[in-house]
Amino acid sequence: MPRELRLDRDLRGTGPKNREGAGRWAKWRVIDVDAGETVGQVVEDREFDGSFYRPSTYSAAHNPALADFGALWRTDGHPTPAAALEALADHLARLSR
What we know:
Elements: E1 5-9, E2 14-17, E3 23-25, E4 27-32, E5 37-45, E6 57-62, E7 73-78, H1 81-95
Antiparallel strand pairs: 1-4, 2-3, 4-5, 5-6, 6-7
C-alpha cells in the first residue's frame, strides 16, 4: 500500500532573505501521515540568469533528518510541488518493495 505523504510549509523558506529574515522561495517538510515522521523535503528553486529570475522548478529529497547535504536521494526540475512530491512518493514505494 502506498504511503500517504503531506507537505507542511516551512514559513522560513529558502534562498535570499527578505527584510523579515525569511527566504523568498518556498520550502516544505514532507510528512509520512501514517508514521507521523518526516521523510524529506520539497524546495522551490529559481535561477537568476543575470537580468531576471526564470520560472520556478521544484526539487524533492529523501532526507528524514532534514540535514544539510544529508539527502539519501534527490530529484530536481519538477514543474510543481505536487510533481516533486509524487516523485518522492514513487522513490519511497520502490524502497519498500
